[in-house]
Design brief:
It is a single chain. The protein is an alpha/beta fold. It has 2 domains: about 250 residues, Rossmann fold, CATH 3.40.50; about 35 residues, no CATH class. Helices cover about 35% and strands about 25% of the residues. It contains 10 helices and 14 strands. Helix 2 crosses helix 10 and helix 4 packs parallel to helix 5. The model has no long low-confidence stretch (mean pLDDT about 85).
Length: about 300
Amino acid sequence: MEQMDKSIKHKIMVLSGKGGVGKSTVSAGLALTLARRGMSVGIMDIDITGPNIPKMMGLEDAELHVEEGQIFPAIGPEGIKVISMAFLIEDPDKPVIWRGPIKLGAIQQFIGDVAWGSLDALIIDFPPGTSDEPLTVSQNLPGIDGVVIVTTPQEVALLDSRKSINFAKTVSLPVIGVVENMSGYSLSGTAPPESDLTIDGPGGMSIEVSTDGDGKLATVLDLFKSGGGQKAAEDLEVPYLGSIPFDPGIVRGGDDGVHRIVAEPDGVTAKSFVQVVDKVMDIVESGNRTAVNIR
């Protein structure tokens, strides 16, 4: 573990207070965006009972190599090193029913026995909530830079984000910031140049848009109630890292094993991740991470 502390420059935990917010999608997106900058990156998938990272990274059929007591990660797109419980399960349809001590042993093995080599960044993806897994990692892995909290736009996200942020404070981890996932749907199209149009949006809401001189239009439709992530960050006085749009291509890419950033590196989703990663790296490299008060 001491060697891991020295050989990995940045260690970033990705948490969510509830399931279904796209935490693993964000973890994979952060890793891919960092790797596309020429950084050496790894992902540690700590979701013992529901590991999704290998499928998202196109590594479902990958096998781990073990030599002299060391586990060598699988290699994904952009050279990203990946370790996950999914690689160790013979039957993916069989549930993993483990009590806490067994989970603890598996996580400690991931931390102590994996040959990561030198990395610029390690992204650690967790199951939803704040129970055994994040607690074990925070107690056993030295030099963690901080926590990225993933939420969705609804105001109810404030409550779940508060739990994750207060967990970080309880175990003395800095909060890097909050990412709002599924934040509106990017709509683009063409119409007569410099014309005004009305779009029927979600919930019967009318949205006024205008085309430019080339007849192009672009707008964002709020599919859900917006602003939950930013409000959570403001209320809890932690950085707001930005938003990732609702993108059906992310779902298709996750099913096909080709992340949206790989399939469309210059698309809206990829650009959104670039903005988020810019803020993440500014914070971790400056050491200006936020300590929060429990409320």
